[in-house]
Amino acid sequence: MKIAIDAMGGDHAPKAQVAGTLAAVRAFEDLEVTLVGDEEKIQPHLSGHDRIKLLHTTSVIENDEMPTQAVRRKKDSSMVLAVREVRENRADACISAGNTGALMSSGLLQIGRIEGLERPALAPMLPTLDGEGFLLLDVGANIEARAAHLLQYGIMGDVYMRKVKNRKRPRVGLLNIGAEEGKGNELTKQAYEQMQDADFEFVGNVEARDVLNGGCDVVVCDGFSGNIVLKSIEGTAESLFSILKSELASTMKNKMAAAVLKPSFKNVQQKLSYSHYGGAGLFGLKAPVVKAHGSSDHTAFFHAIRQARQMVSEEVAHIIAADLQKQRGE
């Protein structure tokens, strides 16, 4: 199992990537990793390991660069070279915490879409109250979508949750403004009709306020709506913990109570943290590409590597291709 990692993308590069990689190669004996980036910056964090290789480059795609232009102009960047490792069969999957649009562009240009797939989807796992989590797709790979695209998102989400998360019969819901049939705009009404006849378990419409309750394993939507849901959840969690921290430090009585409840607060924070869910898979490509969160620490990178490794071992891309072919009646 070989995975290429863009070691220079993200807020904590390359320290987080290196620490996560070291933890991963210790945990998985079949794993080999190529870290792509500036060797002088990587080496201080890297202890010798015969299953970790370095591919040196000093070029990096920054977050404020135009994605397609950057990919074409910086062909020697750490991100593009990591994706190229997959294209040239030197790696089975790749991971980056860098520019999301650039990673999507590079993946499409170098690895390509699965045959019959109309639009890829960016899909992160998000927390639920029961701790199991749900898959949300799309969160921004495509701002606009057609009903046929949402149906394909449902197919891809079903495969991922069965093969990677071991959910026997994943429940797929359609994000909407109401739970009743017939709600929403033309897109969601058409998607609802198509999903009713799909092979996966479609549970109908789901409202944004209910997605954290654990009623769905997969929530499908267009990229515009999905990105708003994603950012709203992240922002609410950050604001909530900020308010709690301020309130618990406001008086001596509160400080004493906080000291007693500290382990419980840590458990809650861990349950709501993205770091234990891995990254967002770019579903629909011929090989696994994982977008790690820009602020990923070593724990998040370890789980992103675990996620990519499992997507390869379970042949997620191949099964998605087969299910899409079946959906087309071929």
Automatic annotation (TrEMBL):
<comment type="function">
    <text>Catalyzes the reversible formation of acyl-phosphate (acyl-PO(4)) from acyl-[acyl-carrier-protein] (acyl-ACP). This enzyme utilizes acyl-ACP as fatty acyl donor, but not acyl-CoA.</text>
</comment>
<keyword id="KW-0443">Lipid metabolism</keyword>
<comment type="pathway">
    <text>Lipid metabolism; phospholipid metabolism.</text>
</comment>
<dbReference type="GO" id="GO:0005737">
    <property type="term" value="C:cytoplasm"/>
</dbReference>
<comment type="subunit">
    <text>Homodimer. Probably interacts with PlsY.</text>
</comment>
<dbReference type="GO" id="GO:0008654">
    <property type="term" value="P:phospholipid biosynthetic process"/>
</dbReference>
<dbReference type="GO" id="GO:0006633">
    <property type="term" value="P:fatty acid biosynthetic process"/>
</dbReference>
<dbReference type="InterPro" id="IPR003664">
    <property type="entry name" value="FA_synthesis"/>
</dbReference>
<dbReference type="Pfam" id="PF02504">
    <property type="entry name" value="FA_synthesis"/>
</dbReference>
<comment type="similarity">
    <text>Belongs to the PlsX family.</text>
</comment>
<keyword id="KW-0808">Transferase</keyword>
<keyword id="KW-0444">Lipid biosynthesis</keyword>
<keyword id="KW-1208">Phospholipid metabolism</keyword>
<keyword id="KW-0012">Acyltransferase</keyword>
<dbReference type="InterPro" id="IPR012281">
    <property type="entry name" value="Phospholipid_synth_PlsX-like"/>
</dbReference>
<keyword id="KW-0963">Cytoplasm</keyword>
<protein>
    <recommendedName>
        <fullName>Phosphate acyltransferase</fullName>
        <ecNumber>2.3.1.274</ecNumber>
    </recommendedName>
</protein>
<dbReference type="GO" id="GO:0043811">
    <property type="term" value="F:phosphate:acyl-[acyl carrier protein] acyltransferase activity"/>
</dbReference>
<keyword id="KW-0594">Phospholipid biosynthesis</keyword>
